[in-house]
Design brief:
single chain; signal; 120 residues; two-stranded antiparallel sheet; mainly alpha
Length: 120
């Protein structure tokens, strides 16, 4: 009765052994005199490797700003139903500016545009 469970446990352990973690870095093998196989390294995860590319950081910041602009637009659209004309006008201005900023952010996030370069 326990044979299928052992088989699935063995299969799970073997799958974990063959899976390469996301933060894996290549580990070079020692050269062998009799090796005819192509050179390849083993992938070992390093808990100390926390490198994040500048492009990823930039994209993350832009996405966070886009979420904030969406929240501003949501708050402004709620204020459009106010009876006070000054509140309505201010809410419409906020909504227009938020839409402009959101359009700029989406344009910067577009993969067809050239990547950001910091040449300062």
């Amino acid at each position: 009765m326990s044979f299928p469970y052992r088989l699935s446990s063995i299969a799970a352990v073997m799958a974990m052994c063959f899976a390469a973690p996301a933060g894996a870095a290549p580990l070079q093998k020692r050269p062998s005199h009799t090796s005819n196989l192509p050179k390849s390294g083993l992938l070992i995860a390093s808990p100390f490797r926390k490198e994040i590319s500048p492009a990823h950081q930039r994209r993350k910041q832009l996405m966070e700003m886009l979420v904030m602009q969406m929240e501003v637009a949501d708050m402004a659209s709620e204020s459009l139903t106010s009876d006070d004309p000054d509140i309505k006008q201010l809410a419409q201005e906020m909504l227009d500016e938020s839409n402009k900023i959101s359009a700029k952010i989406l344009d910067m996030l577009d993969p067809r545009n050239p990547p950001f370069r910091n040449d300062r």
